[in-house]
Design a protein that fits this description.
By secondary structure, the protein is mainly alpha-helical. Helix content is 60%, strand content 4%. It has 18 helices and 6 strands. The strands form 3 sheets. Strands 1-2 form a two-stranded antiparallel sheet. A two-stranded antiparallel sheet has the order 3-4. Bound molecules: NADPH dihydro-nicotinamide-adenine-dinucleotide phosphate (NDP). The site of NADPH dihydro-nicotinamide-adenine-dinucleotide phosphate has 19 residues, from helix 12, helix 15, strand 6, helix 16 and helix 17.
């Protein structure tokens, strides 16, 4: 039976729960196909990202390939030439990408923030870490700085898109260098956990759970301040480019500016909810997370913008009705994404005894559930069964995926490449759900089965 309030009563992890947490904090088994699988991912993603960019930038978004056996070598030579000429890691790209990293680190260090207590960390003997959530002020400072740089011509925002290839290469190098650097740092300081003992696999999965420099939690910093900031400014860059060349901004580009701002703002205004997410309390800071934050998200989620930067608007113009539909779908999905994540995070905060919540803009209706129902597990934790979580075990994933689909659909059928994000993302989410549910089933045992009976749909009620 799902229980009723008081959810605000602080939970106590039982001895049996602690024993399970201890087991879950030890290395279990290879994921992602083990060392060979992760090596393939580490080499394959950069190649794929270069390929898709080349198709968009030089071949009107068509998926090019060698037409015959004899064409294989010339084709490879052409691809290589594109990378060497238009995506080499130029000094200018280092200054722009590196400048942003340093600026974001500086802001994270100095800006005032909301103090949020994270979840108890089993590997730290259930100590809670404090998070200085200053992403929102940092975002405002970044937007103001970008506007000044643009209008004073010190740095025109159009430069971001113009240097896409170069910036992407710099981002990849930073992603690789940071992943290996952090691995060696973790091992040298003895802060590694859940290690498999295989070097490349541990670099991929990460060694350290809570990397920090002074007051900055690097994992949460990298998740919010790098990818979504770049994604947003790439959209703004696209808008500026259209304004300069066409004299106006297309509704499609305006859609992407809105969509990327919503995501970035959600991460910043709800930063205090991020310590409650799987990436923060379970995933270590390895290549999988680092590369994706530094290079994958910023340079592969917004292919629609790259396409628009190179093509005439007549190729992706829709009817008014289609625009209304797309905007309405985006805003509805955003609402569910925002409120479902908020409902669960705030519920978890309540179970830690936190009773007052941060009030940032916009706080949407139904972000906090009064008197939520839940399942009290023998572990000690509680599983929410109210709000969106009464209908689906992953309402936040469904809504997030719909948004990712909209980011591609805004181009229609002109090119398949902008749909990469939603195809990749659904693969990630389905895989992650498998990993997550397996972990929850070990952690909560019979209580998890009970929860799955109460909330039957994995994603969408009646469908899956
Ligand atoms: P969830 O927010 O679903 O967190 C999963 C964990 O929450 C579980 O392991 C469990 O942990 C706990 N949990 C699950 N169900 C309940 C419940 N009913 N009540 C209480 N606790 C529960 O997933 P993520 O952290 O992966 O995702 C957070 C958001 O980030 C999502 O919206 C996702 O789409 C987004 N995301 C976006 C990415 C992108 O590239 N755009 C990439 C990854 C995520 P426990 O019980 O141990 O606390």
């Amino acid at each position: 039976m799902a229980k009723n309030s008081p959810a605000t009563e602080k939970i106590v992890i039982t001895d049996a729960g602690k024993e399970i947490d201890r087991r879950l904090d030890q290395y279990q088994e290879y994921e992602f196909g083990g060392p060979w699988g992760v090596t393939g991912i580490m080499l394959g993603f950069p190649v794929l990202m270069y390929y898709l960019w080349i198709c968009l930038w030089f071949y009107d978004g068509q998926l090019v390939y060698p037409k015959s056996q004899a064409d294989v070598n010339p084709f490879m030579a052409r691809m290589w030439a594109h990378i060497c000429e238009d995506a080499y890691p130029s000094l200018y790209a280092w200054k722009v990408y590196g400048g942003n990293i340093i600026f974001q680190l500086f802001l994270a260090w100095v800006m005032p923030g909301y103090q949020q207590e994270g979840l108890p960390v089993p590997s730290l003997n259930y100590k809670t870490l404090m998070y200085n959530c200053n992403a929102l002020y940092s975002l405002y400072a970044t937007m103001a700085t970008a506007a000044v740089l643009h209008y004073t011509n010190i740095f025109r925002l159009t430069e971001i898109l113009d240097n896409f290839g170069h910036l992407m290469s710099v981002a990849m190098i930073c992603g690789f260098a940071t992943s290996f650097g952090v691995y060696f740092w973790a091992v040298a300081t003895g802060s590694q956990i859940r290690m498999s003992g295989n070097f490349i696999y541990d670099v991929f999965m990460g060694a350290i759970l809570n990397p920090r420099i002074g007051p900055i939690d690097l994992k949460i910093w990298a998740e919010v301040r790098i990818p979504w900031v770049i994604v947003f400014f790439l959209s703004v860059s696209g808008g500026c480019k259209q304004y300069e060349t066409l004299g106006y901004v297309t509704p499609n580009m305006a859609f992407m500016i809105l969509a990327t701002w919503l995501y970035l703002n959600a991460c910043a205004k709800g930063e205090e909810c991020i310590p409650q997410t799987w990436d923060m309390y379970h995933e270590k800071w390895g290549f999988m997370v680092i590369f994706w934050n530094f290079a994958g998200v910023p340079f592969s989620y917004i292919y629609s913008i790259v396409y628009m930067a190179r093509q005439d608007p007549s190729k992706y113009r829709f009817s008014t009705l289609a625009y209304v539909f797309l905007f309405a779908t985006l805003l509805t999905a955003y609402y569910i994404f925002d409120t479902s994540n908020s409902q669960k995070s705030r519920f978890k905060m309540q179970t830690q005894g936190i009773k007052t919540f941060r009030n940032t803009f916009p706080q949407l209706p139904w972000s906090i559930i009064e008197n939520p129902t839940y399942i009290q597990t023998a572990h000690g934790n509680r599983l929410l069964t109210s709000g969106w979580w009464a209908y689906s075990r992953k309402p936040n994933y469904v809504a997030d995926w719909v948004m990712s689909f909209c980011w591609g659909a805004i181009i229609g059928t002109a090119t398949p490449i902008p749909y990469f994000y939603s195809v990749f993302f659904i693969t990630v989410l389905v895989h992650r759900v498998g990993r997550d549910f397996e972990r929850c089933s070990i952690k909560y045992g019979k209580d998890w089965e009970r929860y799955c009976q109460v909330v039957q749909a994995k994603f969408i009620p009646g469908i899956y």
